[in-house]
Amino acid sequence: SAGIRRSLSKLTTSYSNGEVSVLRFSESELEREQTWKCHDFEAWTVAWDSTDRHVFYTGGDDCLLKIWDTRCPEGVRTIRRHSMGVTAIQSHPSTAHLLATGSYDETVFFWDTRTMRTPVEETAVGGGVWRLKWNRKDPQLLAVAAMHGGACVLRYSADSQTAQCVSKFTKHESMVYGIDWAEDGALASCSFYDHSLYLWK
């Protein structure tokens, strides 16, 4: 997994050995600045925080969600709430302190990053979560690639701290691993097992 912080010209990458690196990039160079041993098993995902430019999150096959700060050599916090590997993390692009995480445990958690003691909401999606993607035009919508559970869209209300499934797509013949929003509000989902890319609303 990889995450980009354009304002700092930095890139985070996660590796199968549990490490995560921060790299600085320019037009002609890519230089590794820091590397952490973040997880005991595969580090499945890494994502920058949308509010604090120094903070990023990692998720691993050890069931842990971890918070890191590029100014600190040690991790800021370790959270174990998912019962299986943490595979997807998305900080909301416009709503401060809102974070979504997904796991092989088939659950999406919504967090207030100011507390992180417990999720403010959790939603079962019927399959292991591999990718999450917030919609920039409708900030309540979160697209979910739920592997054997297909793809779905959750509507999350920050006011009531509730989420519900508002759309589901199950035409893939195998596990859904990728999902993203198109400019017109449609969704693209894919599975490398059935060699298919679908556009749907």
TrEMBL record:
<dbReference type="InterPro" id="IPR052415">
    <property type="entry name" value="Diphthine_MTase"/>
</dbReference>
<keyword id="KW-0677">Repeat</keyword>
<keyword id="KW-0853">WD repeat</keyword>
<dbReference type="InterPro" id="IPR019775">
    <property type="entry name" value="WD40_repeat_CS"/>
</dbReference>
<keyword id="KW-0378">Hydrolase</keyword>
<dbReference type="InterPro" id="IPR036322">
    <property type="entry name" value="WD40_repeat_dom_sf"/>
</dbReference>
<comment type="similarity">
    <text>Belongs to the DPH7 family.</text>
</comment>
<dbReference type="InterPro" id="IPR001680">
    <property type="entry name" value="WD40_rpt"/>
</dbReference>
<dbReference type="GO" id="GO:0017183">
    <property type="term" value="P:protein histidyl modification to diphthamide"/>
</dbReference>
<dbReference type="GO" id="GO:0061685">
    <property type="term" value="F:diphthine methylesterase activity"/>
</dbReference>
<feature type="repeat" description="WD">
    <location>
        <begin position="169"/>
        <end position="201"/>
    </location>
</feature>
<feature type="repeat" description="WD">
    <location>
        <begin position="79"/>
        <end position="121"/>
    </location>
</feature>
<dbReference type="Pfam" id="PF00400">
    <property type="entry name" value="WD40"/>
</dbReference>
<dbReference type="GO" id="GO:0005737">
    <property type="term" value="C:cytoplasm"/>
</dbReference>
<dbReference type="InterPro" id="IPR015943">
    <property type="entry name" value="WD40/YVTN_repeat-like_dom_sf"/>
</dbReference>
<comment type="pathway">
    <text>Protein modification; peptidyl-diphthamide biosynthesis.</text>
</comment>
<protein>
    <recommendedName>
        <fullName>methylated diphthine methylhydrolase</fullName>
        <ecNumber>3.1.1.97</ecNumber>
    </recommendedName>
</protein>
